[in-house]
Amino acid sequence: MVLLRATRPLLVSASFRPIPRLNRLYSSASTSSYENILVSAPKPGVGLITLNRPRALNALSTSLFRELNDALRQLDDDKSTGAIVLTGSEKAFAAGADIKEMKDLTFSEAFNTNFINSWSSTIPGVRTPLIAAVNGHALGGGCELALMADIIYCSSSATFGQPEIKLGIIPGAGGSQRLTRAIGQSRVMELILTGKNFSGTEAGQWGVAARVFDDSEACVQGAIDTAAKIAGMSSVAVKAAKEVVNKSQDLPLRDGLEYERKVFHSLFGSRDQKIGMTAFTEKKKPEWSNE
Fold first, then answer.
1. Is 164 a catalytic residue?
2. How far is CA 40 from the centre of its chain?
3. How does pLDDT run across 114-134, given as a tens digit for each residue?
4. With left for phi above 0 and alpha for psi between -120 and 50, is residue 218 left, alpha or beta?
5. Catalytic residue chosen out of the listed positions 90, 96, 158, 164
6. Which is the catalytic residue, given 82, 140, 141, 142?
């Protein structure tokens, strides 16, 4: 949860710019009234959240997460939204935490207020699939935020890392836990103990990212296209699928298999199971009821 170069990027970044053309393409869909994020609907069923703190390289703060959590809850409650894409700019997905907010904290203040708990408590409860489209820097809290997503897409030039050790702290929003589950203890130990970054290409090779794109625009467009495809499925089945995959990270194999089978059986009580299987046998496209 560390900013790329402490507080200096908070002053100005002349090279910071949004993803080319995408903002113009979908600006008519904007529904945002926030200060630190933009919210839009680029395709039917798809919610797009763009972190928007250009002078701070999208540095994460409590105020940003307050808005992000609110937008996520609203989209998650919206029955017309079937998938969500979270992205930043071409320069930075999120270059880390806003050091100005935490540099003077004492232990008792951090402990008693459960500092940054709100940064990571909402996303795990979002049932709508969340895709992180990562371009530029995703460092510290930015890397942790990406890891909270269900799917990560990135450009080959993206930079991931947990460099908190360089500030005398450690990851505090899940970096040591989620990254270890993704790529293994030895590799994560090296990354966290040295503060070494890794590239978008490596993220794809190591299994952190599901897909790697040549450029930032293709990355965001690819995430939107996948989100639209997910949104076109039965929301009942999608939520069930997300739930059982996530349970695989928490349960022993035997318990996970039993849990999966129970959820599988439960879907035979849904209308969409009947709709989907009937459409298949009749060689028709299913028209989901989402029930």
1. yes
2. 16
3. 888 888 889 999 999 999 999
4. alpha
5. 164
6. 141
Q: Which two tokens stand for residue 216?
A: 């930032």
- Name every residue whose Cβ is closer than 8 Å to that of residue 194 and which is 6 or more positions away in sequence: 165
Question: By 3-state DSSP, what share of the chain in percent is helix, strand and coil, each rounded to 5?
Answer: 50, 15, 35
Q: Decide if 222 is catalytic.
A: no
Q: Which residues pair with 152 in a beta bridge?
A: 132
Show the tokens assigned to 180.
């270890």
Q: From CA 126, how far away is CA 147, in angstroms rounded?
A: 14
| Half-sphere exposure at residue 229, Cβ-oriented, CA atoms within 13 angstroms | 7
Hey, what amino acid is at 19? I
pLDDT in tens, 50-78: 999 998 999 999 999 999 999 999 999 99
Is 241 labeled as catalytic in the residue annotation?
A: no
Per-residue CA distances from 63 to 70, 73, 80, 88, 214 (Å): 11, 16, 27, 16, 33
- To the query of whether residue 200 is one of the catalytic residues in this protein, the response is no
Reported confidence tier of residue 113, pLDDT bands at 50, 70, 90: confident
Residue 96 one-letter amino acid: G
Catalytic residue among 67, 90, 144, 260: 144
Alpha carbon of residue 286 to chain centroid: 29
Burial class (CB in 10 A: 0-12, 13-18, 19+), 284: exposed
Provide the whole-model pTM. Answer: 0.87
Task: Please identify which residue in the block is written with the tokens 């703190």.
Answer: 53
